[in-house]
Write a structure and sequence with these properties.
Number of helices: 5
Structural class: mainly alpha
Largest sheet: none
Strand content: under 5%
Distance between the termini: 24 Å
Number of strands: 0
Helix content: over 70%
């Protein structure tokens, strides 16, 4: 979500970009992925990263940092 909002995309805008990459996705599906209610398949993950204009490993690295910050905040 942070990468999406940093680029100024709404969920609908990002899903339109992902769908344009031949990976149909609804805003509901993206919302569930962002909230970790739905798992993110590798195909979806790569399409989301491409639509955002970032390398997939960049999203993974930022997720790890976010988890680390959340874990430190809980202690």
């Amino acid at each position: 979500m942070r990468a999406r909002t940093a680029r100024g995309y709404s969920q609908r805008q990002l899903t339109a970009r992902v769908t344009a990459l031949d990976r149909p996705m609804t805003a509901t599906a993206l919302s569930r992925i962002e909230r970790t209610v739905r798992r993110c398949d590798i195909d979806d993950f790569v399409a989301i990263a491409t639509a955002l204009g970032v390398a997939p490993h960049t999203l993974l690295a930022s997720s790890s940092r976010d988890r680390g910050q959340a874990e430190r905040a809980e202690t």
